[in-house]
Amino acid sequence: MNTQHNDWLSSGFKDAQLMQNLVNKITPLANELHQQLGRPVQIMEVCGGHTHTLFRYGINTLFERDIEFIHGPGCPVCVLPREVIDQCIAWLTNDTCILASFGDAIRVPGTTMSLQQARAQGRRVEVVYSPLDALNLAKKNPDKEVIFLAIGFDTTMPSTALTVLQAAAQNVTNFSVYPVHITLIPTLKVVLGDSSIMLDGLIGPGHVSMVIGTKPYDFIANEYGLPFVVAGFEPLDVLQSLYMLLVQKKQMLAGAGARVENQYARAVLTHGNANALRAMAQVYTPQSKSIWQGLGANQEVGVTLQPEYNQFNAEFKFGAYQCERESTHLTPIYCDQVIMGKRSPSQCPNYGKTCTPQSPLGALMVSSEGACAAWYLYNGATV
Amino acid sequence: MKINESDSTQQITLAHGGGGQLTHSLLIELIADVFGDNVMQDDQARLSLQSTNLAFSTDSFVVSPRRFNGGDIGCLSVFGTVNDLVVGGAVARFISCAFIIEEGFSIAELKDICQSMKKAAQLCGVDIVCGDTKVVPKGQCEGIYINTSGIGQYINREPLDMHNIAIGDKIIVSRDIGRHGACIAATREEYGLDSDLQSDCGSLHRVSEALLRHAEIKYMRDATRGGVAAVLNELAGTINKRFAITESAIPTCPEVDGICELLGFNPLHLANEGCLIAIVSEQSCEKALNAISELDEAQNAACIGEVCSTENNNALVTLKSVLGVDSVLASPNGELLPRIC
Predict the structure, then answer these.
(1) ipTM given for this complex
(2) A19 touching B, CB under 8 A?
(3) Most buried residue, A144, A305, A343, B287, by CB count within 10 Å?
(4) Do B194 and A1 touch (CB under 8 A)?
(5) Pick the CATH number of A82-181+287-318 from 3.10.129.10, 3.30.479.30, 3.40.50.11740, 2.60.40.10
């Protein structure tokens, strides 16, 4: 990657005048809809990246009387169950193990400790930016077993799949992945199937959609009657998608049907990325065993590797280790309700008191894309 | 064995730290050769200063990678301590250096580092007057760690006092921010970035001198680890004032913006090694900016905000976004980790 040509990327979509123009269009429209509905408009931003943009630029406070943002489940670090961290730490007790992980996952608390704390105790935990870096780590350390903690939604699934295919092609025997990916569409079905969450529209995830396209979201408009706009992550993207959602909502109140729209057309195609989808189909198969934070057990949201890639599946290669479980939970954690949008971070009794970014009780307080960490970062401990 | 730094096979061994002949030859043939005989003659440096007010500072350098675009651990270790002295209003005079070296370290690289230190010291007008070397077994440190301590003099000037900071004062950064942190992140091979970004690693003695001469400077800090955000939070907490920063006024270069976008970092959280924050009186803000505008190391200096009272807002530092919304600007929390996607 060359960082030199990113000027337009980082400045063009942050143009203050264009942003203000959109704010001026959204403000009266949101107010009008508020009057018509008799309550604020409820918008869910599915992805943690959007949560971050909302807070970072203060978009959430600009319309706070007329629009309520409900933070969705799309933060891959936030949905990580403690058991996943416990499993990694169990494998790390073997001195030949190197665990490679994306950066923010190393701070997620396990039952007894996080990966960052395990590293401080002498376990080998390496932060990588891509699964290919983990594969290279394996090649450089032939006497070690490198396990890549493969987390993330459909966004990161293709790179893990391609890495497994590359490891197979190159016959790298000391590399495996711990597949704890989670797929977005089943996750959205769980959220939308919960009747206690009332929504007027959703801001759809940009990165996931680059992989899967916009077609898979049709059911949201058709079955749930909800406007859905796939959006980019710059403040202008978020404002424009918000405007598109409100326009749709207004049309719906006049009798029109809901539809899926694509604000992020510069990156997202209707049918997604064919190469990525092919690699995913080749390597993964759905799996329902996982207990996802907020989503409960036995939901068809996870994946594992196809049996022919078992030699690259850490769970198969090293066996699932029986982790010691504490009989009682440390503190009642309200993360599940926050992930499902039923409770805002500030409504959690632990927020800012026993749960802070320095000492997180739950993963939502870890990632900068987690709703709680974002609240904390831009509002502080007291809200 | 003679020290021969041009022989690339020559490495530091534990024997170089043993205190015997090899230690002696390392000191004489390499260290004293670069820094001058005085460094090694006595167990102590003998200093002569005509001042009652002295500044004293120490800092350790464990940076990885040791070499980066725009500098290396050697010059960094000199600039770092010099900058800590000059931002308090002192003139940096003397520096000590202590090396902790890993067994197996290349003697040629050690010589390069010493030469880089010497060059940096000459640039800031300080003398390296004493030092120490220790060798530790392989694996007990990563290559080389350097500690420097420095002594500075307040010449016809009182040390700056943060309690002189008043509501209405302006906050200046002496150049575009985040370069060192972004450069180190880009240099780390595991991120696979290809960047020409240069660290801002450099001395602040000229910037500090020009500011103190031409403007009413209340206080200065160099914005190293934790970046501008950490320094402002710490300072605001100590003096019980609020700093209100305007995002659009913060100078950054496109490369730093690009790296932050890719890795999910905030330039305000990234380390600087040649950028200071100055709090100046409102009326001399423009004078301050003019005073340093001629200096290469302060090309993009800017006023980024002002000192306010803590009434109506209990945050220490607030950041006004381009949409005009104030949010809390927190200190970075611990290790900067790239986000997943």
Answers:
(1) 0.76
(2) yes
(3) A305
(4) yes
(5) 3.40.50.11740
